[in-house]
Amino acid sequence: MTGRTDETSATRPEEAAAFLAVDDLHAGYGDVRVLHGVSLRVGEGEICAILGPNGAGKTTLLRALCGMVKGRGGVRLDGTSLAGCSPDAVARRGVAHVPEGRGTFVPLTVEENLRLGAFARRDRAAVQSDLERVYGHFPVLRERVGQAAGSLSGGEQQMLAIGRALMSRPRLLLLDEPSLGLAPLVTRELFGIVRAINEEERTTVVVVEQNAHLALGIADQAHVLESGRIALSGSAADIRADEQVAQSYLGYRI
């Protein structure tokens, strides 16, 4: 695969078919390069899991996709290049990023946080219906609607962060370590909701996750990063079922 990003070059057939197309992406921080030629494809309406050990470049990949980290290479969303776009411009094109650590505005109420997710929208009449849609996915948030976000449990704050992202009506949802710091029962519930959002709204999801077994349980496809390069790609079912892969790359036994 080539890393050309020239807008005048012809789009390859596989690029045209992919909703998210990443080609030969290099990115890092200052003089420290983290990603070394990452290429992948995600179809519209799919869930893609990005797996790998700490320091593999998973968070940097999401940051590069949403414009937080500048990179060299090609990133296209539904045929439109995102290369060189600011985070605001990427968000306007339908990408929502839920960072590691949730990033909720802790002094604000649940509803205020959710409405902030719709700040760039002009269809104000539809915002209330979207609030109801988010409460449908996360009923606990309706019960906490007037509470400060900082008073919520870790799981509730993660639900709030995802709900706020949904208020922008994203076409692509990027989730960075959604299970971080959560109890196993809460994590399973959260991943079930993410799958429901994907199925009901056809939102394409790219999820970075340390809990490989759980992520593979909801994903359609997966890529394993190792030292900033893709070491393994395939269907989530095949990767999950391969005992050698699980032990060598993902750190668990089937």
Automatic annotation (TrEMBL):
InterPro entries: AAA+_ATPase, ABC_transporter-like_ATP-bd, ABC_transporter-like_CS, BCAA_Transport_ATP-bd_LivF, P-loop_NTPase. Belongs to the ABC transporter superfamily. Keywords: Amino-acid transport, ATP-binding, Nucleotide-binding, Transport. PANTHER family: HIGH-AFFINITY BRANCHED-CHAIN AMINO ACID TRANSPORT ATP-BINDING PROTEIN LIVF. Signal peptide: none annotated. This is ABC transporter ATP-binding protein. It comes from Actinomadura sediminis. Residues 20-252 form the ABC transporter domain. Gene3D superfamilies: P-loop containing nucleotide triphosphate hydrolases.
